[in-house]
Description:
This protein has helices at 2-22, 49-77, 90-115, 118-123, 144-150, 156-159, 164-181, 201-209, 221-224, 233-247; strands at 187-190, 193-197. The chain is mainly α. A hairpin with a 2-residue loop joins strand 1 (187-190) and strand 2 (193-197). Helix 2 packs antiparallel against helix 7 (164-181).
Amino acid sequence: MFLRNYLFMLVIAGGLHLYFFTFRLQGSRLKYDPREQLEKSRKFSFRNQVWDNIFWSLASGTTIWSIYEGLYFWGVANDVIPTLSIGEHPIVFVAWLLAMPVLTSSHFYFIHRLLHWPPLYRSVHRLHHRNIHTGPWSGMSMHPFEHIIYLSSVLVHFVIPSHPIILLLHLYSRCLGPAFSHAGFEKLKVGDTSVVDAADFHHQLHHCYFECNYGTVDAPWDKWFGTDHDGSDQAKTRIQKQRTANSS
């Protein structure tokens, strides 16, 4: 299980990095940040952004992901964690699939706001925000404590019956999805064909301006709490005014 997850992370994050940054097979087309290379700086472990991101993604992120997954399947095997059958509860299974994006987006918004509380930001979340110019390995480059609470949304499956497939989809979206959302390119293109959406512009703006777009577009919490940034000059001015007010 652990080796499989490390392999998934290497293939997805590593493959995207090779495509976009090492071999530059897409050049600068649809790239958010005009800089071509990721950073080499003393602020990163090993003084290298890529190696820093790989280390935290694998040593901490993929390990904690695997621990959550192992605990779940141990609980299922020992009848400690309830599950449901697709054949007996097809409607509930589909309901889980439909609810998952809203559930994970809502959880992410609130724990992300918590991580921007100054004491937690300085001691924990700042590690992730070393990445202003993001790449595929940046997504899961986090402090171990952040990995624990970021992935804690899967604990809902420990108490509310779902299906192991739902649990796996939940973990894969949380752990492999950030490689795409932090890729730095709007889409992955082969020639003139768009293969898949890559970076999330909503979250890209968070790495640029920090105090906005704490959630995702799957749930409207940013709009409801006034932390939404759509990339416009008006939104930039509003966020800067909020930052000034908060620091004064």
